[in-house]
Amino acid sequence: MPLALLALAIGAFGIGTTEFVIMGLLPEVAADFQVSIPTAGFLVTGYALGVVLGAPLMTLLGTRVTRKRMLMLLMGLFIVGNLVSALAPVFGVMLAGRVVASLAHGAFFGIGSVVAADLVAPQKKAEAIAMMFTGLTVANVVGVPLGTYIGQSAGWRTTFLVVALLGVIGLLGVARLVPEQPRPEGVRIRHELAAFRNVQVLLAMAMTVLGFGGVFAAITYITPMMTGTAGYAPSSVTWLLVLFGLGMVGGNLIGGRFADRRLMPMLYVSLGALALVLGLFTVTAHNKAAAAVTIALIGALGFATVPPLQKRVLDQAAGAPTLASAVNIGAFNLGNALAAWLGGLVIAAGLGYTAPNWVGAALAASALVLAVVSGLLERRTSAGAGRIVAGSSPEPVAVTARH
Q: Helices 91-118 and 306-316 sit at what angle, rounded to 10 degrees?
């Protein structure tokens, strides 16, 4: 794998750290700005919405520059956003800094996926995408716990300064290691938008929303579930999330490797197994050891869907894949927000802290249904094309008249 993928992974590591580390620092931020915890929670919501809106916006703005230059500009935006957050004098300024940083998120992963795929042979594309996303998964194992520790011991502002420094390293890595790829000729905004008329692109994005949403339906409420149902101490939740992150790392690499060989079967297996494990989590959540194993499996199966889904979008939007790729990253965050909301509804309805697992299982099962529909449509289209070729009129044969 090219060294350029390392630069993309470093950028992904910084972005993943800043996205999730705020969850462990909300009490400190709320106390510093003298706001309530729910108000401080807007730092999470605002970031997620910024990703959803920023992915298409920043990608469209970048259609007139090379992908390498756009990646560098996005890392610069990420650095500025985290510096604003670290130095914010009031809560509103910090929220603005979070939104600025989030604008780089979707476009970086979307454009980065295209660049990563172009750096390798066609049969290695999903694996290359997975290598970039490894930075995001490792952030959950190393970056988030370490950032939380730094924030709790040296102040939350220090954490965001460190994250900004990670952005600088990522920017230098992109500038030094990512090759200059010429801007695709003839690609205009209308070409990028045309990809959304492809039903297979839309199905892949819907699978992204529902499949990864299933993961967050359960993980969003992991603290009350593990402390109130499994019997873990609150201090143990950090290590349970590390297990979840380790599962993500393994699932991401496995998903990338097998998606290059059999993409749709990989989706069928991972989504089906994810739905089953999420359903079982309603039972295993009552046992400490079983719950820990299940959390790792949810991370592995959930992220095993990421490289194949991202490659699916790139394949189906071939010719102008950049915007579709970025919007699919926003779809992950849209799924997270939707699933967290649905999980909160079933808890508020009095169904208990394990009820979101059923929501997650239903979402993952729905994604599996869409995957099957997508596969059948693709097979039918291929069969139709085969019949047309087989039934084509033969080329006219010249006949020489006999005298």
A: 70
What is the rounded distance in angstroms from the CA atom of residue 7 to the CA atom of residue 108?
Answer: 12
Dihedrals phi, psi of 217, to nearest 5 degrees = -60, -40
- Residue ranges of alpha helices (H) inside 119-155 are 125-138, 144-154
pLDDT band at 395 (very low <50, low <70, confident <90, very high): very low
CB atoms within 10 A of CB 6: 17
Residue in 30, 22, 347, 62 with CA at minimum distance from that of residue 184: 62
Ramachandran sector of residue 231 (left: φ over 0; alpha: ψ -120 to 50; beta: rest): left
CB burial string 166-188: b at 16+ within 10 A, e below: bbeebbebbeebbeeeeeeeeee
Q: Are 171 and 15 in contact (CB under 8 A)?
A: no
- DSSP conformation letters of 349-382: TT--TTHHHHHHHHHHHHHHHHHHHHHHHHHHHH
Whole-angstrom distance, CA of residue 164 vs CA of residue 180:
25
Q: What are phi and psi of 90, to 5 degrees?
A: -135, 165
Q: Which residues contact 327 (CB under 8 A, 6 or more apart)?
A: 55, 56, 59, 106, 110, 196, 205
Q: Which two tokens stand for residue 91?
A: 């809560």
pLDDT tens digits along 167-190: 999 999 999 998 887 665 555 667
Contacts of 338 (CB under 8 A, 6+ apart): 209, 213
Tabulate helix, strand, coil % of the chain (nearest 5).
Answer: 85, 0, 15
> What does the alpha-carbon distance between residue 403 and residue 398 come to, in Å, rounded to a whole number?
16
**36: helix, strand or coil:** coil
pLDDT tens string 129-165? 888 888 888 887 888 888 888 888 898 999 999 999 9
How far apart are alpha carbons 214 and 219 in whole angstroms?
A: 9
* Alpha carbon separation from 299 to 30, 221, 248 (Å, rounded): 29, 14, 4
Measured CA to CA in angstroms, residue 72 lies from 178, 184, 360 at distances of 10, 18, 36
| Total-model pTM | 0.76
Of 367, 240, 249, 251, nearest in space to 301 by CA? 251
